[in-house]
Specification:
Helix 1 packs parallel to helix 4. The protein contains 5 helices and no strands. The chain has 115 residues and is an all-alpha fold.
């Protein structure tokens, strides 16, 4: 999980640096810091949500097959998958939030001069 967080942090850093002019223009045109943060964090939550949608059925089938081999069976609740998804989303938000806040608080004039 740590390697995934470091990869996500690097991707967020690269993407923020690449979009610094866009962020400066958005701030100049009146976007608030919260709008910028939501834009950047939302961009990284989409792949996490898509990965969860793909992983849920696969994990359900794999866990059901694995649990069928035991004598004492338990019910496989969807709450486990929802909890894992919420944990993954929380980790992704916390990982990207630092870069997003730093980019949203930068002065628009600096962002437009920066190249």
């Amino acid at each position: 999980m740590l390697i995934g967080c470091v990869g996500l942090w690097g991707l967020a850093s690269f993407n923020t640096a690449r979009r610094i002019r866009e962020i400066g223009i958005r701030k100049t045109l009146g976007a608030s810091s919260a709008d910028i943060v939501m834009l950047l964090v939302g961009q990284f939550l989409r792949p996490v949500l898509i990965a969860n949608v793909i992983a849920w059925p696969l994990a359900f089938v794999a866990m059901r097959t694995w649990l069928a081999g035991f004598d004492d069976r338990i019910a496989l609740s969807p709450l486990y998958f929802v909890g894992a998804s919420l944990l993954a989303l929380g980790i992704a938000v916390l990982t990207v939030l630092g870069q997003s806040l730093r980019a949203s608080r930068a002065a628009p004039a600096w962002a437009l001069r920066h190249d």
